[in-house]
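Today's session is about reading a structure prediction critically. Students often jump straight to the picture, but the first step is always the sequence itself: look for stretches that repeat, for charged clusters, for runs of hydrophobic residues. Only then move on to the predicted structure, which in these notes is written as discrete structure tokens rather than atom positions. Here is the chain we will use throughout the hour.
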Amino acid sequence: MATFVNRAYVETATTGTGTITLGSVKAGYQSFADAGVSNGDVVRYVIEDGNEWEIGQGTYSSTGPTLTRTVSESSNADAALNLSGSAVVFVTAAAADIMNPTNPVVTAGTITEDVHTLSGTSVSLEPDNGSIQSHTLTGSTTYTDGFSAGQAVTLMIDDGTTYAITWPTMTWVNNGGSAPTLATTGYTVIAIWKVGTTLYGALVGDGS
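Below is the predicted structure for this chain, in token form.
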């Protein structure tokens, strides 16, 4: 996912269609680094060169500094502009970023969430991998907390052998305040979310 910052707007003397060197800061704005872009960050950029324009994603390097160019659309039939040496480049958001801020696929008003399959017996629950996650157990399993505040996951666990489960520190809001016993047929469905520094869990279906 692209990194977004405020008021990063610079000139570039680069010519051609390749990686650009970021130059002087436009008056009233700030450099990419001063705006908070770090080495290796991917940003959504716009280049304007006279009446020509280019939108894409680029990887920032603090050496130079430079910005690579992966074009998504442009006034040059969606190909990279052949820069004149007097263009400007700035960080912004494209329409796709505003419609899909965390990169879900939106079709006819329906959000399609990312689905992720877990494996192994020592598993970090990482919401960034997908908001729906499934895990077929192969042995006694330890889950660890990979959540940031405000993130949530629906976890579907298939346990046919009554394997032992070790959960991260969690406040269970139902099921008598205790971790559920997993069903031995089908999925046990558990909702997990984090508010502040507290991780919460709730038994949604099956299990006990």
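Discussion point for the tutorial: The mean pLDDT is 89.
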